[in-house]
């Protein structure tokens, strides 16, 4: 039983909810941040080692009180693609990350884990994802604010903002070598929702799980790199990072991905695991525009200790079961 107090930002989020659950299971105390309306919805959540604090703007708010007594910070909160303007997305990603780590350092928290994305290792356009190559932990994409404004594409903006945020994080870390910082870079994250927190009340809260939801409604999701990982493994990676010794600045950076798994494979599997669920051919495109590249997760296994990943087929089954149950709840409440 650790008993250490961990601050988890954006605790109502998909990944953060699982991070909080796993921390509690291991005996940590958790303080989660949430914004106004989401904070109000947490009144029904009760756990003796879990508390919440309202933080409406991680990029600007004074986080002194939120970090009081905190020994470890896990910064998960991030803007979702298309949910905000380019300016707001950049500020939330970059200044949100820097504000959290600055206040964490002032509060005396030395161990910090930050959620990045696989997109930080390649061009935010994702074009190299279909070049049949391999990306590793120490690869970096290239972009600039000027390119982001020129592209004016929500997904490019999201990945580019996350890339610039991680670069800013490691530049800050160079000036504070006493801080122990880890960056977790997951593939596309899917899976069941954390059970401790309120389930989504509408489709707009599905996040990446909107992709399998599209399949249930007769349509292939948009064409994306086929890099998938179960949310429970992503949360586990964050927790495992807490047990690592301090290393050279910039070396605690880990790609976390279960492998390549296309939605065509997902549909084929669901036809066997959930007979009759998918009726007729799906609309949209099932193929990829080129040979899929791969993410090298060898260091996640040998250094981080995430030796096995949940099979993508189980991941798909579990998220689909959650989606079916959610639809039943919504129908009964209507």
UniProtKB/TrEMBL annotation:
Pfam families, per the entry: Epimerase
UniProt key word Disulfide bond: no
MF (Gene Ontology): oxidoreductase activity, acting on the CH-OH group of donors, NAD or NADP as acceptor
Highest taxon in the source lineage: Eukaryota
Keywords: Oxidoreductase
Sequence ranges assigned to domain NAD-dependent epimerase/dehydratase in this UniProt record: 6-244
InterPro entries: Epimerase_deHydtase, NAD(P)-bd_dom_sf, NAD(P)_dehydrat-like
Family: Belongs to the NAD(P)-dependent epimerase/dehydratase family. Dihydroflavonol-4-reductase subfamily.
Protein name: NAD-dependent epimerase/dehydratase domain-containing protein
Species: Hebeloma cylindrosporum
């Amino acid at each position: 039983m650790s008993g250490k107090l961990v601050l988890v930002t954006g605790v109502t989020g998909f990944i953060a909810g699982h991070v909080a659950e796993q921390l509690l299971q291991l005996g940590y105390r958790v303080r989660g941040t949430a914004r106004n309306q989401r904070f109000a919805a947490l009144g029904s959540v009760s756990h003796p080692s879990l508390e919440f604090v309202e933080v409406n703007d991680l990029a600007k708010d004074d986080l002194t009180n939120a970090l009081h007594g905190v020994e470890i910070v896990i910064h998960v909160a991030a803007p979702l693609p298309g949910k905000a303007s380019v300016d707001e997305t950049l500020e939330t990603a970059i200044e949100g990350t820097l504000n959290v780590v600055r206040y964490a350092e002032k509060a005396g928290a030395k161990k910090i884990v930050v959620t990045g994305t696989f997109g930080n290792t390649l061009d935010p356009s994702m074009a190299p994802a279909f070049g049949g190559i391999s990306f590793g932990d120490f690869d970096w994409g290239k972009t600039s604010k000027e390119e982001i404004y020129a592209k004016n594409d929500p997904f490019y903006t999201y990945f580019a903002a996350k890339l610039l945020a991680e670069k800013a994080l490691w530049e800050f870390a160079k000036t504070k070598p006493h801080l122990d910082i880890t960056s977790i870079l997951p593939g596309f994250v899917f899976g069941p929702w954390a059970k401790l927190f309120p389930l989504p009340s509408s489709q707009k809260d599905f996040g990446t799980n909107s992709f399998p939801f599209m399949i249930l409604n007769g349509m292939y999701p948009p064409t994306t790199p086929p890099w998938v990982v179960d949310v429970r493994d992503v949360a586990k990676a964050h927790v495992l990072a807490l047990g690592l010794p301090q290393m050279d600045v910039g070396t605690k950076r880990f790609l976390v991905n279960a492998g390549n798994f296309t939605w065509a494979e997902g549909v084929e599997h669901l036809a066997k695991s959930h007979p009759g669920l998918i009726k007729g051919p799906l609309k949209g495109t099932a193929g990829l525009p080129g040979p899929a590249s791969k993410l090298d997760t060898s260091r996640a296994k040998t250094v981080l200790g995430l030796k096995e990943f949940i099979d993508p087929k189980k991941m798909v089954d579990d998220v689909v079961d959650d989606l079916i149950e959610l639809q039943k709840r919504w129908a009964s409440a209507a």
